[in-house]
Amino acid sequence: MAQTLKRILCVDDEEDILQVAKLALETVGGFETRQCNSGAEALIEVGQYNPDMILLDVMMPQMDGPATLKMLKGDATFANIPVIFMTAKVQPSEIEQYLKLGAIGVVAKPFDPMELPKQIEKLWKQLHAA
Q1: Angle CA(13)–CA(98)–CA(56) in degrees, nearest 5?
Q2: Edge to edge, what strands does the sheet with 53-57 contain?
Q3: CB burial readout 9-35, b (16+ within 10 A) else e
Q4: What's the CA gap between 34 and 24, in Å, rounded?
Q5: The pairing of beta strand 83-87 with beta strand 105-108
Q6: How many CB atoms within 10 Å of residue 91?
Q7: Given this model, what pLDDT does residue 130 score?
Q8: Following DSSP, what letter does each residue of 79-129 receive, concatenated?
């Protein structure tokens, strides 16, 4: 039986993006979420929250999304948590690079709050259909 997607950790340095994502995922999608404002905060929070998935901004100060993902993948405890990048940089070559880094998908920013839960659910189902 496939694992159920319930808990999502959202990581973005822009508070308004976090609030829109929270509203969309909790109200529209019925998920539980927790928000972080940085990659460093996410690395601490992931152990406490134990998310099923991480929605991770690419461009953040200090530790960006790719660096955060690399740290997560380097820790056996968190290496298998699926990560979806959120970014405005969605050229095919950029998306290919994000997937090579280990992300399961990319959500383009700005995203449609009504569609965000469906996009995440679709990527989750693709991951677990394999």
Answers
A1: 25
A2: 32-36, 7-11, 53-57, 83-87, 105-108
A3: bbbbbeeebbebbbebbeeebebebbb
A4: 13
A5: parallel
A6: 8
A7: 64
A8: TTS-EEEEES---HHHHHHHHHHT-SEEEESSP-TTTHHHHHHHHHHHHHH
pLDDT per position as a tens digit, 109-127: 999 999 999 999 999 999 9
Angle at CA 36, nearest 5°, toward 117 and 94?
65
What domains are there in the chain, each with its CATH number? 7-124 (3.40.50.2300)
Q: What's the whole-number mean pLDDT along residues 72-88?
A: 95
Q: What is the pLDDT of residues 25-70, one digit of tens each?
A: 999 999 999 999 999 999 999 999 999 999 999 999 999 999 999 9
Among 10, 90, 20, CA closest to 56: 10
Name residue 84's beta-bridge partners: 55, 105
How far apart CA 35 and CA 56 sit, in angstroms, is: 10
Residue reference for tokens 């994000």: 98
Other C-beta atoms closer than 10 Å to the C-beta of 88 total 10
| pTM listed for this prediction | 0.95
